[in-house]
Amino acid sequence: MYAVIMTGGKQYKVAVDEEIFIEKLEGEQGDKVKFDQILAIGDDETIRVGDDLKKAKVEGEIVKQGKNKKIYIIKHKAKKGYRRKKGHRQPYTKVRIKTIKA
């Protein structure tokens, strides 16, 4: 069984015991997380969307809070001597999906 959830403005296809990296959520390691926006639930034979999902639940557990690798943003204007280099590390939350209830 799998579910399509939406969190942090992105959609993820998840299954039970799967670990996903999502946008940072509040909480500590070991805390429970409920995903409210469920877009679809399915298995090998059927898929459910829309009003069928009002009672559906997807729950997970926070495994880790962290930051991604650093990316560099460089601005440059030719022949003007203008250069700027800036780094950014996006925070993330690693979540293990515990249950999918349809």
Explain the overall architecture.
The chain is built from no helices and 10 strands. The protein is an all-beta fold. 12% of the residues are buried.
**Strand arrangement in the largest pleated sheet:** 2-1-5-6
Provide the succession of SSEs. Answer: EEEEEEEEEE
Please state the average pLDDT score.
94
Task: Give me the count of strands.
Answer: 10
* Rg result: 19 Å
Beta-strand content estimate: over 45%
Q: Which bin fits the share of residues in helices?
A: under 10%
Largest sheet report: 4 strands, antiparallel
Shape type: elongated
Q: What is the terminal separation in angstroms?
A: 9 Å
- The tally of helices reads 0
Structural class: mainly beta
Which consecutive residue ranges, at least 5 long each, have pLDDT under 50? none
Task: Supply database-style keywords.
single chain; 102 residues; mainly beta; four-stranded antiparallel sheet; 10 strands; elongated
Offer a concise description of the structure:
This protein has 102 residues and is mostly beta strands.
Question: What is the topological layout?
Answer:
Blueprint: E1 2-7, E2 10-15, E3 19-23, E4 32-35, E5 38-42, E6 47-49, E7 57-67, E8 71-77, E9 82-88, E10 91-101
Antiparallel strand pairs: 1-2, 1-5, 3-10, 4-7, 5-6, 7-10, 8-9
